[in-house]
Amino acid sequence: MKKIMWFGISFLVFEIFIVLFIDLILLVSELKLSLTTSAMFGSLQDVFLNPIQTIKGYVTSQNPLFIILTVLNLFYSAFIQLKRKTKKDGWAIHEKNAYHGSARWAKEKEILDGNFIAKSEQEVREVFFQSLEGRDLK
Length: 138
Hints:
This protein has helices at residues 2-31, 37-49, 51-60, 64-83, 108-111, 121-133. By secondary structure, it is mainly alpha-helical. It has a domain at 2-83. The termini are far apart. The model has no long low-confidence stretch (mean pLDDT 80).
């Protein structure tokens, strides 16, 4: 049910853009160099006030651009809804090794992954002091 609702919403939103796009193309082809912003706003106002009448006009005149873009819109809206997954995967819910926005303590195997050798504090201190003995401190 949710997918059908989102299909309808996305189809209608894209269809509005298609109607506006075609209306602007027809307006530019009609007025060419005498195009003004008042003519554009007037045309867009007519489309917004009478969208169903505008669409009926495109269908009755068999506007090829409208028909092609509407069919593409239908397929694209369906493709978006079929492609969308409902389950999240990857980093969104990866509990074993969360690395994106995780707020948890790291496990020992994640810290010591073979690149480091675990030593006690005493061993590290002894190695550090032995390395200092050979230096000439002034």
